[in-house]
Specification:
transmembrane helix; mainly alpha; membrane; Integral membrane protein; 108 residues; transmembrane
């Protein structure tokens, strides 16, 4: 049981490394689109192609990463002997750790 939990943690940490790309794309789209419209962020001054192009890029990248992430986690979840809610929450948080490390590292 503990072996599968450690496997799940390692799997999600490793998936978080390429997961930096979809997280960044999502942030870029949201910060230049909806958040900029609400006045929470300022738009990138050189971004003049419109947000539809970004949406066409962001949705497939997020979909492919989400499918790969789910397909990798589903067999491990069954063997980890954790409640589904606990497993998926921990999986998402562990996948975001590499992004958080990069963000914190860029602030130093």
């Amino acid at each position: 049981m503990w072996r599968w939990r450690l496997t799940a943690a390692g799997l999600n940490l490793l998936l978080g490394v390429p997961g930096v790309v979809p997280v960044w794309l999502l942030w870029y789209y949201v910060s230049n689109g909806p958040l900029a419209d609400l006045g929470r962020t300022s738009r990138e001054p050189t971004e003049n192609d419109g947000m539809l192009l970004w949406l066409v890029v962001v949705v497939p990248v997020l979909a492919v990463f989400g499918i790969i992430w789910w397909l990798a986690n589903e067999p491990v979840r069954r063997r980890a002997a954790l409640a589904p809610h606990t497993y998926w929450t921990a999986g998402v948080l562990l996948t975001l750790v590499p992004t958080a490390v990069l963000v914190v590292g860029s602030l130093v």
